[in-house]
Amino acid sequence: MCSTCGCDQGEKRVEDISHHHTHEHANGAHSHEHEHDHAHEHSHTHPDGNTHSHSHSHAHGHSHAHEHAHDHPLDAAAGAGVTRLVSVERDILEKNDAIAAENRHDLQATKTLALNLVSSPGSGKTALLVETLKRIGDKYPVAVIEGDQETTADADRIRATGAPAIQINTGKGCHLDADLVRTAMSRLGTPAHGILFIENVGNLVCPAGFDLGEAHKVVIVSVTEGEDKPLKYSGMFAASALMVVTKTDLLPHLDFDVDRLIDNARRINPTIGVLKLSAKTGEGINRWLHWLETARALRLATD
Amino acid sequence: MHEVSLATALIDLVHEQAAAARARRVTRLVLEIGTLSHVDAHALRFAVDAAALGGPAEGATLEIQEPEGTAYCLDCETSVAISARGAPCPRCGGVKLLVQSGDEMLLKEMEVV
C-alpha cells in the first residue's frame, strides 16, 4: 500500500476516464517501486568505543537520512529485551516527496508546465479555469486534474470547454497528494509542451505541505474573503509563487481593501506575484493569460 | 485533517525502520515538527496513537520537539529567529522576512526493544 494514498480505505477515487465512471481500488491495487536507493560509505562510533566504517544503502528522498541500526554483535542485545536508541532523521513525507519528484521528472521530460491551484472553497477556481480554457482554446495543449472530496461536477464543467479533465475524489481526505496526481497523470496523459492545471481541494491549510510535482503553486483569493487570509493561512501564501485575486467585479459592493490583502501576502512572502481579475467580466484576465504563456515559455526554454 | 495522512506516513516509516533495526517493539518516538509547519501537535498525537494501533509502535511515547523558525530579514540583513510567519523582525521590526527553516517534519529517532 502506498502510505500517502490511503487507497486501502476505499475512500479515494481517481476517475476512470476511459469508461466514464469511477471505481474504488482494492487494498494495495496500485503500489509503486521507487528506484532511488543509493549506497554510501560512512563511519561511526559505537558505545563500546570501536569506530568502524561500512557501506549501506538507503532510500533517497530529499532528506539526508542515516540509519544507525545495523547488523552487528551489539544488536544481539535486541533479543535480550534491552532498549536501544535508533537514529533515523528522515522526513515524514519522504514517500510523498519521492513520488512528487517522479511526477516532476515526467513533466520536465515532456516540457509540461504544471500548476497547483490552491484556495479556500468557493474562491472561484473552477470558474477561472473554465474562462481560461475557453480563451486558450487550441493555442497549446492543456489538461486539468480536478480534486474534490466528492462528485465529478467540476470535471464535468471543465470537460464542457473541450479540455481533457479527470476528477480525483479524496473522500475524507482534505488535500491531493503526489500519488493521487501520479495515477491521474497516467490516465489523463500529460499535455506535452502545454499546461497541466491541478485544481486542489478547497482548503488553505493542508495542501501546502504536499508537493505534487508542480512547477508553481498559485493561490487564489476572492474579494469576498478577508484581507487577513495570508496571515491566517501563512503556509500556503509562503509556498505560492503567485496570488490571483478573483471576483474584482464585486469590489464596488464590498468593504474590501485589496491593497491590504497584497501587503499581508507580501509580509508572508516578499516575492509573491499578484494579479487581480474577474472571471465574470473578463477584467484582468489577459494579464493572467500572459502570465501563463510566460511561465510556459520558461518551461519550454529550459531543461 | 492532514495530521491523519502525516501520522499514517510516519507509522509506515517507523515500521520500516523498526524492521531494519530488528526491533520487536518501538517504545518511544522523537519527532521534530518546526513551529512554522502547518501541523497541530495535539491533533498529530491523537492521529499517531490511532495509526500505531495493532503494530509494534502501539502505545509508544511520542516526544515532539518544536524548534523555532529562522528567517533572513531583508531590512536589517540578518538571520533572526521567528515563532510565526508574518511576525516582524525581532531586531528591527521589519516585515520583509525570507523564511529559511522551521517547517521541517522529521522522525529524528526512536527507542526500540
Notes on the protein architecture:
Chain A is α/β, with parallel strands linked by helices and 303 residues long. Chain A has a domain at 96-301: P-loop containing nucleotide triphosphate hydrolases (Rossmann fold). Chain A is built from eight helices and eleven strands. Chain A has helices at 94-109, 125-136, 153-159, 178-188, 229-232, 234-239, 258-268, 285-301; strands at residues 13-14, 38-45, 51-58, 84-91, 113-119, 142-148, 165-169, 195-199, 216-222, 242-246, 273-276. An eight-stranded mixed sheet of chain A has the order 1-7-6-8-5-9-10-11, sandwiched between helices. In chain A, strands 2-3 form a two-stranded antiparallel sheet. In chain A, helix 3 (153-159) links the parallel strand 6 and strand 7 (165-169). The two termini of chain A are 33 Å apart. Chain B is an alpha+beta fold. Chain B has one domain: hypothetical protein PF0899 fold. Chain B contains two helices and six strands, in the order H-E-H-E-E-E-E-E. Chain B has helices spanning 2-20, 41-52; strands at residues 26-33, 61-65, 69-73, 78-82, 97-101, 105-112. Chain B has a three-stranded mixed sheet, with helices on one face. Chains A and B meet through strand 4, helix 1, helix 6 and helix 7 of A and helix 1, strand 5 and strand 6 of B. Strand 4 of chain A pairs antiparallel with strand 6 of chain B, so a sheet runs across the interface.
Cα(first) to Cα(last) distance of chain A is: 33 Å
What is the tally of beta strands of chain B? 6
Order of helices and strands of chain B: HEHEEEEE
Structural class by secondary-structure content of chain A: alpha/beta
CATH architecture of the domain at 96-301 in chain A: 3-Layer(aba) Sandwich
CATH class of chain B: Alpha Beta
Provide the helix percentage of chain A: 25-40%
Report, as a whole number of angstroms, the end-to-end distance of chain B.
32 Å
In the CATH hierarchy, the third-tier topology of the domain at 96-301 in chain A is known as Rossmann fold
**Secondary-structure element series of chain A:** EEEEHEHEHEHEEHHEHEH
